[in-house]
Amino acid sequence: MAKDRFLAQGVTHTKRQRGAQSQKNQKNQRSQKSRMRSHGSDGSDSDGVGDVSDLEHQYEDASDAVSSADEFLETPAEKRLRLAKDYIGRVQASTQLAAGAIDAEQIDRDLIAERLTSDANERSGRWSRQIARNFAYTIDEPRVTRVLRYGHALPPTCVALTPDARFVYSGGKDGALVKWDRVEGKKLHVFRALKKKRPDHNVGHCDEILAVAVSSDGRFVASGGRDRRIHVWSVSEDRHLGVFHQHKDAVTGLAFRRHTNHLYSCSLDRMVKLWNIDELGYMDTLFGHQDGAVAIDALQREQAVTVGCRDKTVRLWKIADDAQLVFRAGAATDQHRITKALASAPDMQPSEPNPRVASALTAHETTLRTLAGADAEFTEDCVDCITMIDEETFVSGGDSGALCLWSVQKKKPVFIHHLSHGIVPADTTGPYDAPPRPCWISAVAAVPFTDLFFSASSDGCIRMWRVRAGKTPGFDLVNVIAVNGFVNALSVRELVPEDPMSNIRDVVVAAAVGQEPRLGRWSKVSARNVIKLFTLRAVPPTSVQ
C-alpha cells in the first residue's frame, strides 16, 4: 500500500509539474504577443529590437504553434476554397491567347467549365472527350502521310512518339534504335546494334529490339529486346544512361506511368517488373502469367494492364494494393456469334457519308455471310496486343481477328467485334490446302481518355474506332487508313493547338510497317520496311464537306 501511495503521489506530482509548465508557456506566449503589438503600434526601431519580421524569425523556433496559430490560421474549408481559386486562375491563364490579349471577363465561362469537368474526369480515370467524330471524313493518304525511309535494314518492330510529337523513336529487328524528326522527316541519330564480344556491348542492343517507350516528361527513352536487356537513353543529349539485366527472356513490352518516371516492363519470362528511371533502379517484380507477357500499357494510376500470349488472359495489376485482376480472353468466332453479328450489321452503318467506311462495312458483312454458309469457326489462341482507353476500360486483339472491349466490372469482354480486319482467303496453290484464316490483330493504340482508338493488321489498312457513349458498351468503325504491310506497332499523340482556347486537336499516328510480323517470320508480304506518319486534321462534323 505504501508503494502504491508513493506511486500515486508521484503521478500527482508529475501532473502538477506539467500543469505549471503549461501555464508558464502560455504566460511567455502572451508576453511575446504583447511585445509584438506594442512594437507594431510604436513604429520605431529605437530599442534595437527590429521589425515584426525580425520578431517572427526570433521566436519561430521557440514555438511553432504560436506562429501557425497567429500568422497561418486557416480552416480546412478555407484551404479548399483557396486551392480551388488558384486552380481556376491557372485554367484561365492557360486559356488566354497571349499575355494581355484577353481580359478575364472575356473568357468563355463554358470553356472553363468544360476544362474543369475534363480534368476532373481524367483524374478520376474515366474517358470524357468525344473526338472520334472529328475524323469521320475521307482521308487523303498522300496529303497526310510522311514516310521515314532508310532507317532500318530489317522490319521495324516498335515505334514511340514523344509527348509533344516532335521526335519519333523506332526499333527494328536489326537491333538499331533510330531517332527521327517528325516535322522535317529527317533521321537525327542512330543507336546501332553492337556485338556481344565487344567490351562496350552494355551500351547498346545486340539483338532485335521489340519495345520502345518515352516518358511523359519527354526526357527518357527506354528500349527492350531479345537480348533480355532494357536500355535507357537521354532524349536531349542522345546518350546512353543505363541498362537493366534482370529479365531472363526477351523484353516484349514497355510503358511509362504518366506524370512519373516509373517504367513497367513485361517479358517472355512471364514476369512484370517495375523500375525507377530517375534513380536507374529496380523496384519490384510481379508474377502471375502462365505464358510470356507480350504487351503492356499504363496510364496515370499506379497500375498496368498486360496480356499473356497463350495463357489467354488479360491482367490488371494493382501495384499499390499488391493485387491483380484476371480477365479470361479466348474469344471464339462460331456460327452463333457470326449470326448475331450479321443481325447487328445494319446498325453499324455510319451516320456520316464516308464511302471508304461504307465499303469496309459492306466487305465485312459479305465475309460474315460467306463464313456462315461455310460453317467456319475460329478460336483465339493468342492475345497479342492491349491498349488502355481509360483507367477502367481497355481493348485487346489477337489471332482470331476479334477486338475485345474490357471493363474492370466484368471478367469477360463487354463487347466483341469479330473479324475486325477481315480474313485471308484460302490458299490452294501450295502442296497443302490452307483454309481461310482471320487477319491477326497486330497492334492497337488509343488516345487516352477519349473515345478514339486504332487497330492494325496485315490486311492493308489501319482502322479507327469510336467507343460508344452511354450504357450500351461497344464501338463502331469511324475511318480507314490504307497501309501496305505488317503494322507491327502504333503510337498516337494529340498535337497542342495553336489556339489554347480550342478543344479541337489534331492527331499524329506513327506506324511501324514491315515485311514480317514482330515476333516471328511465319509470314512475309511485299512491302517496304519504313515508319509511316499520319497527321490527321480534326474537322468537326459540321465542317465536313
General shape: globular
Report, as a whole number of angstroms, the end-to-end distance.
Answer: 100 Å
Structural class from helices and strands? Answer: alpha+beta
Helix content: 10-25%
| Biggest sheet: strand arrangement | 1-32-31-30
Beta-strand fraction estimate:
25-35%
Radius of gyration computed on alpha carbons: 30 Å
> Count the helices. How many?
8
Sheet with most strands? 4 strands, antiparallel
Poorly predicted ranges:
1-16, 36-71, 97-104
Mean pLDDT: 82
What is the number of beta strands? 32
Sequence-ordered SSE layout with sheet pairings:
Elements: H1 2-42, H2 52-59, H3 64-70, H4 76-94, H5 109-124, H6 141-144, E1 145-148, E2 156-161, E3 167-172, E4 177-181, E5 186-191, E6 209-214, E7 220-225, E8 230-234, E9 240-244, E10 251-256, E11 262-267, E12 271-276, E13 281-287, E14 293-297, E15 303-308, E16 313-318, E17 323-328, E18 332-333, H7 335-344, H8 355-374, E19 378-379, E20 383-390, E21 393-398, E22 403-407, E23 415-417, E24 423-424, E25 437-438, E26 443-446, E27 452-456, E28 461-467, E29 475-482, E30 486-494, E31 507-514, E32 530-536
Antiparallel strand pairs: 1-32, 2-3, 3-4, 4-5, 6-7, 7-8, 8-9, 10-11, 11-12, 12-13, 14-15, 15-16, 16-17, 18-19, 20-21, 21-22, 22-23, 24-25, 26-27, 27-28, 28-29, 30-31, 31-32
